[in-house]
Design goal:
heterotrimer, A mainly alpha, B mainly alpha, C alpha+beta, A: mainly alpha, disordered C terminus, C: three-stranded antiparallel β-sheet, 47% helix, 12% strand, globular
């Protein structure tokens, strides 16, 4: 049982010593196209970052700016007006993301593995059982009733983790990845007398790191960006995740002004809504961007399954 | 006899069944039980009666959608947009994944990949605001540039014809990083020996991509397309609403079921009527995916969803 | 740190008080509390009347209300939890405990998500006693669906005697849905008429006539468009409206009409005794207005992409980017006060371009408080509303916070906002609006004067208390609303090149959407209403 993983860099353009013409042409296309795509994605984000550092007045009169001509950190100072709450929100999000992703990854891969085994007669039936839930749903009210009135998950961390822990999309994508693992590997393990769970845990999981990394990333992003479950189920400040905290802040500032109408109240503070929106994007994205390069190696380099045979 | 063989199978697959138990319980609890709420679509919902005690009202909740005269238009728009998104987004994602796999050093790839992911983090609200900043007639960047070049400015927000292209573009832009990761993972899982064999056969890089990489991506492509097909009648509300808003001048080209329903129910907030629209989308999606899945099954049993 | 420890203290204290009172209660009053706790019945429409009946039975004697059992009332507010909620509500609860042996715990639905959560709380029948309600928060709908407890005259007279005595009959009647009352509305006639706020310095610069008519206003807008590059003459308020704010000035006020609902195209003449409703889009007045708008749009009086602009009109005005906006007196006055406070370089003024026209006041359901249909303590809930609205001390607390911290009283009817004021504001305590309200002393004098002058012009008409029950025509209303957004709004911003064709299209679509059915239903309800009153 030598399920060795091999860090084979499969970029042939580099490994074969002399570059041929086709490779040169390809490299030219590749570098060109990728750079253009990356720029198209990068520039709007730069616009966001720079606008978050521009004074509200400048944004209102001249629109978003690529270079902050009228520099201001007001938006950030509003966001961090209550630093402990902000840190609390970050901690909730980080905790939920890590816990949820690990649990989700375990459940997803285990489910997908069972569904991917061709000798499991009922796998299509179960696949359909899962898939069907993406087509039909009972809507918000019964779901809310169930979680609040029957499962009593309101204002608990479970309400932030459980609803996102499994996703049919991830299960099926994972299943398709696992389906690519040569059956011979499983067969030989079976002959060696390994049980199905052991095959999954000790053989399949190490072999499917790219898939696990991908689904793990998706799970982590889903947890990181989730504000809807918090909106529905959390009113305790101590449990508010970052995205909901930000969403709430912006919504309140926006809504407060609108709802003040008729109240005749004098709004004493002007709120830089535009730059605030931008600053929120930065604040919410920052940590993920910092963490991403560490996960990235799983996608950038080849981690292969084919190598086992050697 | 049949029962006995059933129990025999249960015993035979007990490990698989055990592994599936958490997920099965999860979906029973969080999806199938609440699914009973579908009856709301056929009821006149009141609080005292709740889901089961409220009075039936037949297909009354569906009337607003079908009597509107817009049902066909918005349903067609929804499906066409989704088909365009599926084709364009997947093609671009595969393209980017293959290039990322084949080209460049470690740092180049890291930087490119991170950049491609950035749009994913910008919420639709902010995307909508940026788009307005770029595209509006009076002070938009695009029109400022056109004017600078001595050209006529374009009134994008009053011209429906631009919008299908714009929306497809924005959708592709926002989903690029996410999808690329998925295809990249699929490519890295391809058996290295296949590439080596292709190299020995003297294939050039283009041939290798066409003959080895792309065929090996078929399973992933088919699965992703099938998953998307089930939702072909659901519009991405966040995108359409934040890009188009309540601009009636554009609706002929941009209205999808979800935005239409939202606008119709914004004042009445009727639970039954919105449930009815949801049921309509579900039934259409269900019929479509069953047909497509059947077709795929006939072509290759292992490629189908179920 | 401070907040946290205070909160813990408060909770501990509260728990202690609860235990104490629970003990004391057991011996004395177990009978009545038992009958109350079994109360929330599941049966559909009987809930309201059953609880009303049993609540009066629970009280021991005529006149005196039994408050020996301490209750904790949960109230749902709309808006963010104020920063100083704990300290202010601790004070409020001290007083409430003294007076009616009850305390209030607030739950706040943020502005960002109240629209989703509000109906959900009712639909899921969560446990709460009081809830902010308002016409714009779907009061009629929620009442018809059985979310709120019906309030009978007897209940009000007994448990909310001050509100019952102080509030005018019109206000109560306006809050009735199908003849039944489900809220204690605010007790303050608030003006809903829209005004125009514009740049007086620019008017003087170009020597323009005083802005007192639609024509003078058009001249102002066109001049700005022509001469002031970089300033947008008019910026509308963004939102999901179907008639915009200028319509209220130029269509409703100008023609002395009223509309039941700005999401439906029906109006009637204020002076029409018979209350004949008509389709606004079918009138020559509307066509004339569309022409007026088209002319303005052609002269660049507003942005060409006005339908997609998410610009905040008030922020734009403050920044000098736009030369006029419309809103109600309260909001515009507040904006003027703010600009003056910040020494804005712009001279601004209010314009009433329908001088001498009849004005109407907001219906009372603009803000109110309802009792949850399944509240276990409806009596105490009503008593709490009564005090918060009509007891000077409690009213000041709930509206303005703590004296000396959040505000400082100026005389009997004004207040001065202190530094901490922003820590206690921005949520729906407006439901307790009453004659006891104080005005911010920074509020501009001319805005107050204008309101006073309007008060003389406030016109009361027979249909003032009419409420439309739209449950039979929901489908048609949904579709008509959609048509209005799609075909009506572009006309109102002068974006449709051919007005006649645009109007014809609009009316054709409205017909297909079933406008006639709504009109018939509306008219028959009005006729029945007028025959009865």
């Amino acid at each position: 049982m030598s399920a060795t993983e091999l860090n084979a860099d499969k970029s042939f353009a580099k490994t074969s010593g002399v570059k041929k013409t086709d490779q040169k042409i390809f490299a030219a296309i590749g570098y060109g196209a990728l750079t253009i795509m990356a720029l198209l994605c990068l520039l709007p984000f730069l616009l966001v970052v720079s606008s978050s550092l521009t004074s509200e007045n400048k944004i209102i009169t001249a629109g978003y700016q690529f270079i902050p001509t009228d520099f201001s950190v007001e938006a950030y100072s509003i966001l961090f007006k209550y630093p402990t709450e902000m840190i609390q929100a970050y901690l909730v999000t980080i905790g939920v993301t890590i816990g949820g992703t690990l649990l989700g990854l375990f459940l997803t891969s285990m489910t997908s593995y069972a569904l991917s085994r061709r000798d499991f007669k009922w796998r299509n039936g179960f696949s359909f059982f899962f898939f069907f839930t993406t087509l039909f749903s009972g809507g918000l009210v019964p779901w809310y009733l169930l979680i609040v009135n029957y499962l009593h998950m309101k204002d608990t961390v479970l309400a932030l983790i459980v609803p996102l822990v499994l996703n049919v999309f991830y299960i099926i994508v994972m299943k398709s990845f696992l389906g690519g693992i040569p059956e011979a590997i499983v067969e030989s393990a079976k002959i060696d007398g390994a049980g199905d769970f052991r095959i999954y845990a000790q053989l399949i999981l190490p072999l499917s790191k790219p898939a696990l990394a991908t689904i793990g990333l998706f799970l982590a992003l889903a947890y990181w960006n989730d504000w809807y479950n918090a909106l529905l189920f959390v009113s305790d400040e101590k449990l508010m995740p970052l995205q909901y905290y930000l969403y709430k802040m912006l919504g309140n500032m926006d809504g407060m002004r609108k709802a003040m109408m008729g109240a005749g109240a004098v709004v004493t503070t002007a709120i830089p809504t535009e730059s605030l929106k931008m600053a929120m994007t930065v604040v919410a994205t920052g940590p993920i961007l910092l963490a991403y390069p560490f996960v990235q190696r799983y996608f950038v380099q080849g981690l292969t399954i084919g190598a086992v045979k050697g | 006899m049949r029962l006995r063989s059933f129990w025999h199978d249960v015993k035979k697959y007990r490990m698989f069944l055990l592994m599936l138990t958490p997920a099965v319980v999860f979906y029973l609890l969080f999806a199938y039980i609440p699914m009973a709420g579908i009856v709301i679509a056929f009821k006149r919902y009141d609080y005292a009666g709740g889901i089961f005690g409220s009075a039936w009202n037949g297909l009354d909740n569906f009337r607003f959608f079908f009597d509107s005269g817009n049902a066909w238009q918005v349903t067609r728009n929804t499906a066409l947009y989704n088909v365009a998104f599926i084709v364009v987004n997947n093609a671009l994602q595969i393209f980017a994944a293959i290039l990322l796999f084949e080209v460049g050093g470690k740092w180049f790839r890291k930087i490119i990949q991170s950049s491609l992911f950035l749009p994913y983090f910008i919420s639709w609200v902010v995307v909508g605001a940026i788009a307005y900043n770029l595209l509006n007639y009076d002070i938009g960047t695009v029109n400022a540039m056109l004017r600078g070049l001595g050209m006529e400015p374009v009134d994008i927000y009053n011209t429906p014809a631009y919008w299908p292209f714009l929306l497809v573009l924005v959708s592709a832009w926002k989903g690029l990083g996410y999808g690329t990761v998925m295809y990249l993972a699929a490519i890295t899982s391809i058996d290295t020996e296949m590439y080596e064999a292709a190299e020995i056969d003297g294939a050039n890089i283009f041939q290798r991509i066409l003959k080895v990489t792309i065929p090996n991506l078929y399973p992933t492509i088919i699965i992703l397309v099938l998953l998307a097909v089930g939702n072909i009648f659901r519009g991405d509300f966040g995108m359409f609403y934040n890009m188009v808003g309540n601009n009636g001048m554009l609706f002929s080209a941009t209205d999808v079921i979800d935005t239409f329903v939202f606008r119709s129910l914004i004042t009445s907030n009727d639970i039954g009527m919105s449930a009815a629209a949801g049921v309509f989308q579900s039934v259409l999606g269900f019929a479509t995916i069953m047909a497509v899945n059947y077709a795929v099954r006939r072509y290759d049993k292992d490629r189908a969803l179920f | 740190m401070l907040r946290k420890s205070r909160w813990t203290m408060f909770t501990l204290l509260f728990a202690f008080v609860m235990i104490m009172s629970a003990c004391g209660n057991n011996n004395k009053n177990s009978g009545s509390s038992a009958s109350q706790s079994t109360e929330p019945s599941k049966s559909a429409s009987t809930t309201a009347s059953a609880s009303a009946a049993s609540s009066s039975a629970a009280a021991p004697a005529e006149g005196a209300v039994d408050t020996s059992k301490e209750v904790k009332l949960k109230m749902i507010f709309v808006g963010p939890k104020p920063v100083d909620y704990d300290s202010v509500f601790a004070e409020i609860n001290k007083k409430l405990k003294e007076k009616i042996n009850a305390t209030i715990e607030g739950e706040f639905l943020d502005w960002s998500d109240w629209a989703q959560k509000y109906p959900l709380k009712l639909a899921a029948d969560e446990n709460f006693d009081l809830i902010y309600s308002a016409n714009w928060a779907g009061y009629n709908d929620q009442a018809l669906k059985g979310g709120f407890l019906e309030l009978t005259d007897d209940m009000l007279a007994k448990y909310a005697p001050q509100a019952w005595a102080n509030m005018s009959k019109v206000s109560w009647d306006q809050a009735k849905v199908n003849g039944k009352l489900y809220m204690v509305p605010q007790n303050r006639g608030e003006s809903v008429e829209k005004l125009i706020l514009y740049r007086e310095d620019l008017r003087k610069k170009y020597n323009l006539p005083e802005i007192n008519s639609p024509e003078a206003y058009a001249t102002y807008l066109k001049t700005i468009a022509e001469k002031e590059k970089g300033i947008v003459p008019f910026t509308p308020e963004t939102g999901d409206w179907k008639f915009h704010n200028l319509d209220r000035v130029l269509l409703k006020q100008q023609n002395e009409w009223n509309m039941f609902d700005l999401d439906m195209p029906f109006a009637f003449k204020l002076t029409d005794e018979k209350g004949q409703v008509f389709n606004v889009y079918n009138t020559p007045e509307f066509k004339q207005l569309a022409t007026y708008y088209k002319d303005l749009a052609d002269h660049n009086a507003w942005s060409k992409n006005v339908l997609n602009s998410k610009n905040d009109h008030q922020a734009d005005f403050k920044a000098g980017k736009t030369a006029s906006i419309t809103h109600n007196n309260g909001t515009l006055g507040a904006l003027m006060a703010l600009m003056r406070q910040e020494n804005s370089p712009y001279e601004v003024a209010l314009a009433d371009i329908n001088q001498g026209k009849k004005k109407s006041v907001a219906i009372s359901t603009q803000n109110g408080t309802s009792v949850h249909a399944t509240s276990k303590n409806p009596e105490r809930a009503l008593m709490a509303i009564d005090l918060l609205q009509n007891d000077k001390e409690l009213h000041d607390l709930v509206m303005y916070g703590i004296n000396g911290v959040h505000y400082e009283p100026v005389g009997d009817d004004k207040y001065k906002a202190l530094d901490k004021n922003p820590n206690y504001t921005g949520f729906s305590n407006w439901s307790f609006n009453s004659p006891l309200n104080r005005d911010n002393e920074a509020f501009p004098q001319e805005a107050s004067d204008l309101v006073k002058s309007w008060e003389a012009n406030v016109y009361h008409y027979p249909l003032e208390t009419f409420v439309f029950d739209n449950s039979k025509v929901k489908t048609e209303i949904a579709n008509v609303g959609n048509v209005m957004l799609r075909y009506g709004i572009p006309l109102e911003y002068g974006l449709v090149k051919d007005i006649d064709k645009g109007l014809a299209d609009l009316n054709k679509q409205l017909e297909a959407a079933g406008i006639a059915k709504i009109q018939t239903e509306l008219q028959s309800q009005i006729d029945a209403f007028l025959a009865k009153n």
